[in-house]
């Protein structure tokens, strides 16, 4: 097994990318090359599968790719989909290939649902119906076959032109999926971050190793513009790319480029006991600390301050006459 700098946990794969002039899907050969290298990394347990400006549901080999990832030994396999093409897949097999399926709104529908947005309401309703039907069908299959994979529907935070939670609550087999409000672009769910690390901070460049559909390592799994590429496994080793000077310098300077305007940044809420460490060593060194060590530091500092507080409470308590 290999250990890489920053102990990345998530392998993010763009199985399909239509953001350029043509639509590129990841080939079986590229996928097997990536899996062959990444499965040797000690800290990697999870694979996120998604598409850029196109949905993984649109590719015919989605289930085969999911099975390859499972056979490579990754215990957690999350499929992010907007639902397009998902009814053409063998639904039961999708549930078996992935351990979690997360539906979100297609970009066009998300825009149409913004409050005060002028849109053709008949067309919008048809699109919503299609989206809801897909979710309902997945919920039904999960329930009928008692499939263990999780089914989650992510909806945008804030007000929308319709009450989407209510529409989801009215679906049959509602008990088979959960609904989560989400706003950040970071791959980590904020509740998980706060529970496990006590901080909400974009960790993508340190924890997520992302490969584009054509097999190039890229900087972030989200669909932010100005995508940067650092090389493929044909050109260099996995460590060579991940720890390269160009990637390190991108990590240091990302706030001036790709990350500008992304909700993954600017929402930093750190566990107070870790602020001192973070501020004194800087972001990059901070992410080099093993997570267990960070948790220990936080717990020790919190215990110390709790005992200081209880003794100051004692002195603040009014003296009783003896
Ligand atoms: S802040 Fe940057 S690295 Fe983080 S999710 Fe946004 S674009 Fe990606």
Compute the number of helices.
13
| Overall 3D form | globular
Q: Would you identify the regions where 5 or more consecutive residues have pLDDT less than 50? A: none
Q: Name the bound molecules.
A: iron/sulfur cluster
Mean pLDDT over the full residue set: 85
What's the SSE pattern? Answer: EEHEHEHEHHEHEHHEEEHHHHH
- Termini Cα gap: 67 Å
Instruction: Give me the Rg, rounded.
Output: 22 Å
Strands, total number: 10
Helix content: 40-55%
* Biggest sheet architecture: 10 strands, mixed
The proportion of residues in beta strands is 5-15%
**Structural class, judged by helices and strands?**
alpha/beta
Structural write-up:
- With 322 residues, the chain is of the alpha/beta class.
- It has 13 helices and ten strands.
- The protein has helices at 28-38, 62-71, 91-97, 107-112, 121-144, 164-169, 190-197, 204-207, 238-242, 245-253, 272-281, 283-288, 291-316, and strands at residues 10-17, 24-25, 46-52, 76-81, 100-103, 150-155, 178-181, 208-211, 216-218, 229-232.
- Helix 2 packs parallel to helix 3.
- It is globular.
- The protein binds iron/sulfur cluster.
- Iron/sulfur cluster (SF4) is lined by residues 185-186, 202, 204-205, 220, 222, 224, 254, 258-259, 262, 264-265.
Draw up the topology in text.
Elements lengths: L9 E8 L6 E2 L2 H11 L7 E7 L9 H10 L4 E6 L9 H7 L2 E4 L3 H6 L8 H24 L5 E6 L8 H6 L8 E4 L8 H8 L6 H4 E4 L4 E3 L10 E4 L5 H5 L2 H9 L18 H10 L1 H6 L2 H26 L6
Parallel strand pairs: 1-3, 1-8, 3-4, 4-5, 5-6, 6-7
Antiparallel strand pairs: 1-2, 8-9, 9-10
Helix pairs in contact: 2-3
Bound molecules: iron/sulfur cluster.
């Amino acid at each position: 097994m290999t250990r890489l700098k920053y102990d990345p946990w998530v392998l993010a794969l763009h199985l399909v990318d239509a953001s350029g002039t043509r639509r590129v899907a990841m080939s079986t050969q590229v996928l097997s090359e990536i899996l062959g290298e990444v499965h040797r990394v000690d800290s990697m347990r999870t694979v996120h599968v998604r598409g850029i400006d196109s949905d993984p549901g649109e590719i015919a080999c989605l289930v085969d790719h999911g099975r390859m990832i499972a056979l490579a030994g990754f215990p957690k396999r999350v499929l992010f989909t907007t639902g397009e093409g998902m009814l053409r897949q063998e639904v039961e097999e999708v549930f078996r290939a992935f351990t979690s399926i997360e539906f979100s709104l297609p970009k066009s529908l998300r825009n149409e649902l913004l409050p005060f947005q002028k849109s053709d309401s008949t067309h919008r309703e048809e699109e919503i119906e299609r989206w809801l039907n897909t979710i309902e069908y997945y919920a039904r299959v999960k329930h009928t076959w008692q499939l263990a994979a999780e089914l989650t529907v992510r909806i945008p935070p804030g007000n929308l032109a319709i009450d989407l939670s209510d529409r989801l609550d009215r679906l049959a087999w509602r008990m088979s999926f959960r609904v989560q409000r989400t706003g950040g672009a970071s791959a980590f769910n904020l509740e998980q971050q706060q529970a496990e690390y006590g901080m909400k901070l974009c960790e993508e460049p340190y924890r997520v190793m992302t490969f584009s559909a054509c097999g190039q390592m890229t900087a972030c799994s989200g669909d932010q513009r100005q995508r940067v590429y650092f090389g493929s496994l044909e050109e260099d080793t996995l460590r060579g790319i991940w720890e390269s000077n160009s990637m390190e310098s991108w990590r240091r300077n990302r706030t001036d480029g790709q990350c500008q305007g992304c909700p993954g940044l600017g929402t930093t809420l750190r566990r107070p006991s870790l602020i001192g460490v973070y501020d004194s060593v800087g972001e990059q060194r901070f992410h080099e600390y093993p997570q267990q060590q960070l948790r220990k530091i936080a717990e020790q500092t919190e215990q110390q301050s709790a005992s200081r507080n209880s003794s100051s409470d004692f002195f603040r308590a009014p003296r009783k006459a003896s």
